[in-house]
């Protein structure tokens, strides 16, 4: 992109550099104050649908009407002025004024696995370090809501918690509606007997752990306590 003015050409790189320098000259508190109270996040729960290797952008959110690269589905107008999406989403089109549509994400990874890792962690995969995914970061920064885990994944492979530890790993639900076999006593074990087993386990763990502050022991005990609360 250039300015088109004779004797002075402004490139996109120069424009972004100047804009970035201006922003860096402002303090974070001033930027937050400029945003105003109306921009304070109010959301407490987020559902992320991850369609790995699924629908293409030209068949969904970026149909590119009138271009050689357009998808095979016809675009339709939405409730957001100037925004068109694929005709396969007529109901969603009526709600687009509530949505934030991002069409500027790009990557350099041709492999789906590496690209997925980068999008979910903001890092490229390396041989020595596992970076935490978005859900694990949320679990680390926000406490559990009651007895429910802060990070739950359904019918899929979730990004690992990495260096954030076991307490920030996802709680995996194999299939919606199915009872988790790990949140009930084994068949033939009554509740009274099962509770006595848990009490015995707690005594063994307390004796083994002692006053240790080892993060691995603490994380394991936290996972056990969370599971017991879900059982009850």
Please summarize what this structure is.
This protein is mostly helical and 232 residues long. The protein contains seven helices and four strands.
Amino-to-carboxy terminus distance:
62 Å
Mean pLDDT: 79
Biggest beta-sheet profile? 2 strands, antiparallel
Task: List low-pLDDT spans.
Answer: none
Based on secondary structure, the structural category is mainly alpha
User: Taking strands numbered 1, 2, ... along the chain, how are they ordered across the largest sheet?
Assistant: 1-2
Q: How many helices in DSSP terms? A: 7
- Listing every helix as H and every strand as E from the N terminus to the C terminus, the arrangement reads HHEEHHHEEHH
Radius of gyration: 25 Å
Dominant shape = elongated
Helical residues, percent: 25-40%
DSSP strand tally: 4
The fraction of residues assigned to DSSP E strands is 5-15%
């Amino acid at each position: 992109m250039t300015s088109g003015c004779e004797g002075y050409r402004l490139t996109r790189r120069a424009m972004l550099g100047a804009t970035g320098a201006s922003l860096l000259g402002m303090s974070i508190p001033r930027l937050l104050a400029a945003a105003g109270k109306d921009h304070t996040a109010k959301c407490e729960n987020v559902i992320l649908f991850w369609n790995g290797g699924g629908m293409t952008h030209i068949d969904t959110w970026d149909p590119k009407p009138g271009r050689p690269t357009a998808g095979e589905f016809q675009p339709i107008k939405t409730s957001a002025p100037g925004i068109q999406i694929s005709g396969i989403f007529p109901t969603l089109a009526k709600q687009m004024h509530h949505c934030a549509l991002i069409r500027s994400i790009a990557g350099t990874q041709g492999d789906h696995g590496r690209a997925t890792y980068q999008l979910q962690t903001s890092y490229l995969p390396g041989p020595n370090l596992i970076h935490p995914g978005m859900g694990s970061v949320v679990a680390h920064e926000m406490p559990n809501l009651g007895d429910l885990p802060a990070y739950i994944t359904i019918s899929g492979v979730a990004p690992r918690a990495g260096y954030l530890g076991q307490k920030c790993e996802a709680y995996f639900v194999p299939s919606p509606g199915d009872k988790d076999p790990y949140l009930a006593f084994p068949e033939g074990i009554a509740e009274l007997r099962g509770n006595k087993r848990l009490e015995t386990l707690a005594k063994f763990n307390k004796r083994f752990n002692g006053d240790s502050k080892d993060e691995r022991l603490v994380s394991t005990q936290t996972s056990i306590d969370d599971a017991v609360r879900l059982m009850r």
